[in-house]
Every structure is written in structure tokens, then in C-alpha cells.
Specification:
The protein has ten helices and twelve strands. The longest helix has 13 residues.
């Protein structure tokens, strides 16, 4: 960490804060600070290594509105995510472990941010912030809610009901079954979500396997026949069978209505 700002660093922060920039791109300082491209590149590199700014991608950096005591600055997770996705002109929604924690389904606090988005796939870092970006088709984004953070940044999360659906749909990525079934049971019992909205979100964002597993669960919970038939109409006749709990031995009672081997003890 730098103990004292040099002349160029001082000029950098004075200029960026005067312009009230949160993001700075390469080329933006060569004219105002009379730098060569090489000098500017080295300046960005020094500040990023010192933790005074955060690299979003090559040529794009986040800068603090004011330099904190001690000099080191970490952007918030939402600011980092928003900046990266906005730079690509995309949309996102925070999902998986972060949404599980937000809605109280899981007490574990993730050490990275999981987000569905329509631009980027894979791991990214912005300063110290770790992001796991899951690229999906545009039509798989939706059913969200927005939250304003303490820093005044808007975060987009999957809704409560969408998060429950994704615990079944994306079980392999999130390691969320069979826990997700219990979360859904509890949310239905507490009337925090309703059967009808769960069916609707399943039909819109689920796949055939998700529909079949959700059908078994809702049938067990005594959901009205009309809603179960909505799920049935989305399925084609099939003799294949899928396990209720993926990854466990495919032994148990066969629910022929849904083509699911109920391989648990419930």
C-alpha cells in the first residue's frame, strides 16, 4: 500500500473527484494531465496494485468518490457487478447462494456474488470482489426485485419465488437439492409464496425436469388439481424417469404421473 501519494497520483484523484467520475477509462487522462499513453497506463497500474482504484477490465477502472484513510479502497459488490454488466450493455439478477441467503433460506454467506446475466460467462474479479457470472438467454432473465444499498446503488435480485424455482432448476450448480424442496414447503406453509405463482414461474423459467419435480412436490403438498394440470399440459408423454433427488441412487417409488423416481424417505 502506498504511504504517500506522488504528484501524478494526487493529480489523478483531484481531477477524477472534481469531475465526479466513478469510472475512468484509459485515454481519459492523457489530455487533462498531459500524460503519454504509457505514463497513463503505468499510473493506472500503480493505483490498482496499491488498492486505491479497482480494475473492472482492461482499460476500465472504478475510483472512489474520496480516498479513505490509509489509502486502500474496496468497491462494494453491487457497484462492482453493476459497473461490469453496464459496461457490456447487459442485464443481470443476483441468484443462487446470494439469493438463498437474502431470503433466509440458507444462513451461509457466500464469498462471491452469483448472477445470471445475458453477456458474460465465468469468473471475474473487480478489485477484491469475486463474481460468478452465469450467462443465460434473455428470456431466462426476469421475475426480479430491486434493492437500494446503503451506498445508494441499486441491486437486482431474483424474486423470492424465482429463487425457489432456481433451487430446483439449477440444483447442480447451486447444490440446492433436496434442501430446495424443504424451502418451498416452508414458504408455502407460511404463505410467503402461493401455489399459483410457483406454478406460473415454473412454467416460464423451468425446464421439463423442473416441471416434473415441482409437480411431485406440489402434489404432495395437496395443491389443487387445476394447478397441477397446468404443469401436466406443459409435458409431453414420456416413458423416461428422472430421480427426485439427483445424485442419489435411482431407487424408490415411481410416480408415474410425473415420471419421477421418488428416491427419498418422505
Amino acid at each position: 500500500m502506498k504511504k504517500k501519494l506522488g504528484q501524478l497520483e494526487t493529480q489523478f484523484f483531484a481531477y477524477v473527484q472534481m469531475r465526479q467520475w466513478r469510472t475512468v477509462r484509459t485515454g481519459a487522462l492523457t489530455g487533462p494531465l498531459r500524460l503519454t499513453a504509457l505514463q497513463e497506463r503505468k499510473l493506472f497500474s500503480r493505483l490498482a496494485r496499491a488498492g486505491m482504484i479497482a480494475r473492472v477490465r482492461r482499460g476500465l477502472y472504478l475510483a472512489p468518490p474520496r480516498l479513505p484513510l490509509g489509502g486502500r479502497w474496496n468497491p462494494g459488490e453491487i457497484l462492482a457487478l453493476n459497473t461490469l454488466i453496464e459496461d457490456r450493455g447487459g442485464r443481470y439478477q443476483i441468484c443462487g447462494p446470494n439469493a438463498f441467503n437474502r431470503y433466509g433460506f440458507d444462513e451461509q454467506v457466500p464469498n462471491r456474488v452469483y448472477a445470471y446475466n445475458n453477456r458474460i460467462s465465468g469468473e471475474r474479479t473487480v478489485g477484491p470482489v469475486e463474481l460468478m457470472l452465469i450467462k443465460v438467454a434473455d428470456e431466462r432473465l426476469g421475475n426480479t426485485e430491486t434493492v437500494e444499498t446503503k451506498e445508494g446503488v441499486t441491486a437486482v435480485y431474483s424474486s423470492r419465488v424465482r429463487t425457489l424455482l432456481d433451487s430446483v432448476y439449477d440444483w447442480s450448480r447451486f447444490n440446492s437439492l433436496p434442501r430446495g424442496y424443504e424451502w418451498i414447503r416452508k414458504e408455502l406453509a407460511a404463505k410467503k409464496v402461493g401455489p399459483a405463482e410457483l406454478v406460473d414461474v415454473t412454467l416460464q423459467y423451468g425446464d421439463k425436469g423442473t416441471i416434473r419435480r415441482m409437480g411431485v412436490l406440489l402434489e404432495r403438498e395437496g395443491v389443487e388439481t387445476a394447478l397441477l394440470r397446468k404443469l401436466e399440459r406443459a409435458l409431453n408423454p414420456s416413458t423416461s424417469q428422472i430421480p427426485w433427488i439427483p445424485g442419489c441412487p435411482k431407487r424408490g417409488t415411481v410416480n408415474r404421473r410425473w415420471g419421477v423416481v421418488v428416491n427419498d424417505k418422505a
